[in-house]
Design a protein that fits this description.
Layout (H helix, E strand, L loop, with lengths): L52 E8 L10 E2 L3 E3 L2 E8 L7 E8 L10 E10 L9 E10 L4 E9 H5 L11 E10 L9 H5 L11 H11 L2 H8 L13 H14 L7 H6 L4 H4 L5 H15 L8 H6 L1 E9 L5 E8 L2 E4 L6 H8 L3 E3 L5 E3 L3 E3 L1 E9 L3 E7 L3 E2 L4 E2 L2 H6 L1 H10 L22 E3 L2 H4 L13 E13 L2 E8 L7 E5 L2 E5 L1 H4 L7 E4 L11 E4 L2 E10 L3 H4 L10 H22 L4 E7 L1 H7 L15 E6 L4 H12 L7 E7 L5 E6 L2 H4 L3 H8 L6 E7 L1 E2 L5 E2 L8 E10 L4 E11 L8 H8 L7 E8 L5 E4 L16 E6 L3 H4 L7 H10 E8 L8 E6 L4 H11 L8 E7 L4 E2 L12 H4 L1 E2 L2 E2 L2 E6 L4 H5 L1 E9 L6 E9 L4 H9 L11 E7 L2 E5 L15 E6 L2 H4 L6 E11 ...
Parallel strand pairs: 12-17, 28-32, 35-39, 40-46, 47-51, 52-56
Antiparallel strand pairs: 1-9, 2-4, 3-4, 4-5, 5-8, 6-7, 6-9, 10-11, 10-16, 13-16, 14-15, 17-27, 18-19, 20-21, 21-22, 21-27, 22-23, 23-24, 25-26, 28-29, 30-31, 30-32, 33-34, 35-36, 37-38, 37-39, 40-41, 42-43, 42-46, 44-45, 47-48, 49-50, 49-51, 52-53, 54-55, 54-56
Length: 1147
């Protein structure tokens, strides 16, 4: 990911972090389609001028001798503003060159200044310019952030390496390319007011989804179909994709502000981690449409997806010399068009239908005619009303010899790093090579009937006019390491374009929507000729990624009118109610400064909550009755409101203020004075609240007479202390509130024992023990109260809590888990219900156990072993939970590696309640001293593969692995020698030396394969060669030839002068392939994925280089045939819990 940070001079940067640009700112009837007139939007269009831009080149001489921490360039001017480049030659507290664009005169600019710029910074490679390091970003500069750029621009080791070409004659060349754009006030911008449309909120990395949803929403026929999907008032949006999508579309249509997508992603079954994973627009589009297509079955809108998006093409192979033709009809919902080597959409369509000649070594095997010269291609039978074109702006994945999406490279970057380490020649590869930024044009109108229907098959209906108009352009901005999606859309196909960029919607002109998204490079004029007199090219890193066209003849049907009558009544009512609640909250928020929230706790709340919702302190104030009272109202008037609510006459009410104590407890502190009760509510809040907030918390004291009717509260003197009492029952492990009493500070607890027994329902002479609940954070403090001491001597005061229980003997205490109040409160404070999941099923709870956070490692595994009826707890291995990814952490907990359960559940600053477990076949302490490898053994004679788990001490060698394996497998003869291979994606990458240590062998991604060494390999002659032999097929999807390897690779000895015909005999015997099947096989020499087909008379050894070349697995003898073999019952070893994250909609 390209990384952007401001330049904090003295702040330590652990790593580059992406600093995003802040945009703050049921009765279902059949669908009726009414054409929507193309009316101009109410908001007038304002043309957008071309922004000023420039390039600045800075030659930094004597670079290695710079002694300053930071170094500025001379000033240059772009857009009338003064700029300069700031570098940290030795890094800004990192081992990288740090580089920023700086506003040169920020200190003298007027208050509130701001300017917005897109820019790139580059270090030029003076030997090969294509290896120059360039990074681009954008930023709104202001007084607080007057510089912006890259803390870790490039490693200092690379920069100072004389062989790299960045420092030549101790001179560094830096380039800055700057485009200044008009500053927009992001705080006050109103998309609805400015454009008539609203945006979608980004959940973390859902811009790709937002751009697609906006595109689909602005296809009115699609929106109407979604509205007509059956839903009921009992459905919940978070559990129903149709209802969630209906809700989202309704809000987009009628809301005045940006709309959240959380309900929709919840209906997909996504968790937070899914929302922070950026995926591919095309992949989401296909998955979402497939899901909707399924949900629409059996409804009035069944078939809508096909009607809108489905087209058909015909794949054909036609023999040239005989009368034979094979055709296959296929449907498509979108088309992938090549960008590489194509100047525009028409060139891509030309390439799509390009005819491939099958001749020579590549002849077609026609039924009853044998091998024949033929031509192969694709033609279109029909195009859909809404044509979705996916532009292939992605490149080669050398891991798989195939084309991959940029997002795939991001998701699989761990694999990428392994290969970069393994393939030194690729270390200098610029990852921008994976993105295709070539200029690629697309027209406003697309005529697919051009040149007499060259794209159409003979059976196509020529009466249908395939003339399309551009509806939307989905844009990807950025490179392989990350980026951003947004969309340009013409909702009514008028001349006005709109940019939908997450929450912001802006009006844009046609140039911005089309030409600026062609990609490539743009030549910009030099606005500051004093620095550089030549024009320069500015690489565009934003370009079109997906195009949506609507057929002219269908546009009146597609761009139809959608209004409230299309929306189910229950949905309208639900959403109107949501809107009213939202408006109510908004109004309350706007008027909050005029009101005080008064929260009134009563004895009834304490009885209800203590022992159920809470155990410590007295009440959860969020669960008591609250009143919203205007600040200027006198408190005495508020008491009348209380009288109405609770039926307590005003004169019988006494209110106490709560206070937060130094030990973080919260207790009633003192009653309000008569003078305070004459004040306004607002004045009283300010008196009671040292911390500024809008709440006033009170305890309402109500005394009751013998008839349980309210009576006047007793007079309170300084000698009177208000105490609250909780009763504990160790047999039931139950704590409950039993009431409150006024006691005299000079009195003693023993004088009140009879009263406490009465409150508890005990006999008057029952022996009881008293404890004071003092605090509970960070640990519980609950101490015995001496019954013969005065309350003052025990330091008891208003609001204190006394817990009591029946006295117990030593014998009776042994029968209870928690025999007294302190032990029970300690248990409650530390108890934790832990959800245990099997590591093999990390999404499903297996069982739950109630534990103490103070449990040791041994306590935890012992309880888990008991639950699983396992005799040896040391065979349990635990793994902590990652609260952000909602997955197991990569590394398990080592044996006694974490002291307490509380530490096992902490992930950074969050606490989880999930642990994962495995049941091992040997004790964990023993396992930790061993290296575990999974080895696939291939039998020399039988067609068998067996998987073996090898565990050896970490200092063991590959030879030890082989010796251990020999004791577990069946060999063809007692003296057979074995070797260990590294296999990945059906290629052999390495033969392990016998003396290599196993500790560093990575078997998480590679398959480790063991096999007998054939006798012929042991007696290689001086001119013999050992070559790689791989199976492969050619995938011609999208009319592009791609090599796909499959099956089991192997080695083969070839002799000098040996022909292919001779080698084929040995291969057929080795693989035991029947004659009729083997006759269909083709043989080719492949180098770096390019096949060169061989004839039976060809001398095979001449194709392979005589010396051992780097990357031997990339030169091999290829066996081309269909992959008809059943899949093996094993796969390449994966990480102990590796999760692939394709786009999935689970519900």
């Amino acid at each position: 990911m390209t990384v952007m940070t401001p330049a904090p001079i003295d702040q330590q940067e652990d790593e580059e972090m992406l600093v995003p640009h802040s945009d703050l700112a049921d009765n279902h009837q059949p669908m009726e389609v009414v054409a929507q007139p193309e009316t101009a939007n109410a908001v007038e269009n304002q043309p957008v001028e071309d922004p000023p831009s420039s390039r600045f080149t800075w030659r930094v001489e004597n670079f290695s001798r710079l002694n300053t921490k930071k170094h500025y360039s001379e000033i240059f001017i772009v857009g009338g503003y003064k700029w300069r480049v700031l570098i940290f030659p030795k890094g800004n507290n990192v081992d990288h060159l740090s580089m920023y664009l700086d506003v040169a005169d920020s200190g003298s600019l007027p208050y509130g200044w701001s300017r917005y710029a897109q820019f790139s910074l580059a270090v030029i490679n003076q030997i090969h310019t294509k290896y120059s390091v360039r990074k681009d970003t954008q930023h709104q500069f202001n007084a607080r952030e007057s510089d912006w750029g890259f803390t870790s621009f490039m490693p200092l080791g690379e920069l100072y390496d004389p062989n790299r070409g960045y420092l030549v004659n101790d001179t560094l060349i830096v380039e800055a390319e700057v485009i200044v754009r008009r500053v927009v006030d992001y705080w006050t911008y109103d998309s609805k007011k400015e454009t008539g449309y609203v945006g979608l909120k980004n959940q973390g990395a859902t811009c790709y989804m937002n751009s697609l949803l906006q595109t689909l929403f602005h296809i009115p026929y699609f929106r109407k179909a979604v509205y007509h999907m059956p839903t009921t008032e009992n459905d919940m949006p978070s559990g129903s994709i149709p209802l969630a999508l209906q809700s989202l579309f309704y809000k987009l249509q009628y809301s005045d502000s940006s709309v959240a997508t959380k309900e929709l992603t919840k209906s997909f079954g996504w968790d937070t981690y899914d929302s922070f994973m950026q995926h591919d627009v095309q992949e989401l589009n296909r998955v979402l449409c497939e899901k909707l297509e399924d949900k629409m079955k059996g409804t009035v809108v069944e078939g809508t997806i096909q009607q809108l998006f489905e087209g058909h093409h015909m794949n054909y192979i036609e023999c040239i010399n005989v009368d034979y033709k094979s055709t296959r009809k296929e449907s498509f919902y979108d088309l992938q068009l090549d960008v590489k080597g194509c100047r525009d959409v028409y060139a891509s369509f030309d390439k799509y239908v390009e005819v491939e000649r099958l001749e020579g070594d590549n002849k077609y095997h026609a039924e009853q005619y044998g091998l024949q010269d033929a031509k192969k291609g694709v033609l279109f039978i029909d195009f859909p009303p809404v044509l979705q074109l996916q532009l292939k702006r992605f490149e080669y994945d050398f891991m798989r010899d195939t084309m991959v999406k940029v997002s795939s490279l991001i998701c699989n970057f761990d694999l990428l790093i392994i290969v970069v380490i393994r393939l030194p020649e690729l270390e200098s590869l610029d990852y921008k090579d994976f993105m295709i930024n070539d200029r690629y044009e697309f027209p406003l109108q697309l005529d697919l009937d051009r040149e007499n229907g060259k794209y159409l098959s003979p059976e196509a209906d020529r009466s249908v006019r395939n003339l399309y108009t551009l509806h939307s352009v989905l844009v990807h901005s950025g490179g392989v390491h990350g980026g951003h999606y947004y969309a340009f859309i013409r909702p009514t196909l008028s001349d006005q374009w709109y940019k939908f960029d997450d929450e912001r919607v802006t009006k844009e002109d046609m140039k911005r929507a089309l030409e600026e998204q062609y990609g490539g490079e743009e030549e910009l004029p030099q606005t500051n000729p004093g620095f550089n007199n030549t024009p320069f090219k500015f690489t565009k890193y934003s370009n079109a990624y997906m195009l949506v066209y609507i057929r002219e003849s269908d546009k009146d049907k597609i761009i139809c009118n959608v209004d409230e009558k299309d929306i189910a009544e229950h949905l309208r009512e639900r959403l109107k109610k949501e809107q009213e609640e939202k408006e109510h909250k908004k109004k309350e928020k706007a008027e909050a400064h005029l009101y005080t929230i008064i929260k009134v706790a009563r004895d009834e709340d304490l009885v209800e909550q203590i022992g159920r919702d809470i155990y410590f302190d007295l009440v959860d104030h969020d669960k008591v009755r609250s009143f919203r009272i205007q600040k200027q109202i006198p408190f005495n008037l508020f008491k009348e409101e209380v009288a109405k609510e609770f039926g307590i006459p005003v004169q019988l009410q006494r209110f106490w203020l709560w206070a937060k104590r130094q030990n973080h407890t919260y207790r009633p502190n003192r009653p309000l004075t008569p003078l305070e009760e004459t004040q306004t509510v607002g004045q009283l809040r300010e008196v009671s609240n040292k911390v500024h907030n809008a709440e006033l918390k009170l305890f309402l004291e109500v005394e009751c007479g013998l008839d349980l009717r309210p009576i006047a509260p007793p007079d309170k003197t300084k000698e009177d202390i208000l105490l609250f009492f909780k009763l504990y029952d160790p047999e039931k492990e139950e704590l409950r509130y039993v009431g409150r009493l006024f006691v005299k500070s000079t009195g003693k607890p023993m004088e009140y024992l009879a009263k406490l027994n009465e409150m508890a329902g005990y006999a008057p002479d029952e022996e009881i023990e008293l404890y004071e609940e003092i605090k509970f954070e960070p640990s519980v403090m609950c101490e015995p109260i001496e019954k013969r001491d005065t309350f003052r001597a025990s330091q008891l005061e208003d609001g204190d809590i006394v817990c009591f229980q029946k006295s117990h003997t030593v014998e009776s205490a042994e029968q209870y888990r928690y025999p007294d109040v302190p032990s029970f409160l300690d248990y409650v404070h530390n108890r934790q219900v832990v959800h245990f999941r099997s590591l093999e099923k990390p999404k499903e709870d297996d069982f739950c156990l109630e534990m103490s956070k103070l449990f040791t490692y041994d306590d935890v595994v012992e309880r888990v072993a008991q639950q699983l009826n396992l005799d040896d707890p040391s065979k349990i291995r635990l793994t902590s939970h990652n609260c952000y990814s909602q997955q197991p952490k990569p590394q398990p907990i080592k044996y006694r590696g974490i002291d307490h359960l509380a530490d096992m559940l902490i992930h950074y600053n969050q606490t989880s309640d999930i642990l994962y477990y495995e049941v091992l076949d040997i004790p964990l302490p023993e396992l930790q001293c061993l290296k575990t490898l999974k080895v696939a053994f291939h039998h020399a004679i039988k067609d068998e593969i067996s998987i073996h788990t090898i565990r050896l001490p970490k200092q063991s060698t590959v030879g030890d692995v082989i010796n251990d394996l020999k004791t577990k497998v069946e060999l063809s003869h007692p003296d057979a020698e074995l070797r260990l291979l590294e296999v990945f994606y059906h290629k052999i990458y390495k033969i392990f030396p016998l003396n290599e240590k196993i500790e560093n062998i990575n078997d998480q991604y590679w398959t480790l394969r063991a096999e007998e060494i054939p006798e012929e390999e042991k007696i290689l002659g001086p001119h013999d060669r050992l070559i790689h032999v791989y199976h492969f097929t050619k995938d011609t999807a999208q009319n592009q030839m791609q090599i796909q390897n499959f099956g089991e690779p192997f080695f083969l000895v070839i002799h000098e002068g040996e022909t292919l015909a001779e080698i084929k005999v040995r291969i057929q015997k080795k693989l035991q392939v029947p004659d009729d099947e083997f006759a269909k096989w083709k043989f080719a020499f492949l180098s770096l994925g390019r096949p060169e087909y061989l004839q039976d008379s060809d001398i095979v050894s001449s194709r392979f280089q005589r010396r051992d070349v780097y990357g031997a697995w990339e030169q091999y003898l290829g066996l081309e045939h269909s992959d008809s073999a059943p899949k093996k019952a094993y796969a390449s070893n994966q990480n102990r819990h590796t999760f692939e994250k394709p786009v999935k909609i689970y519900n």
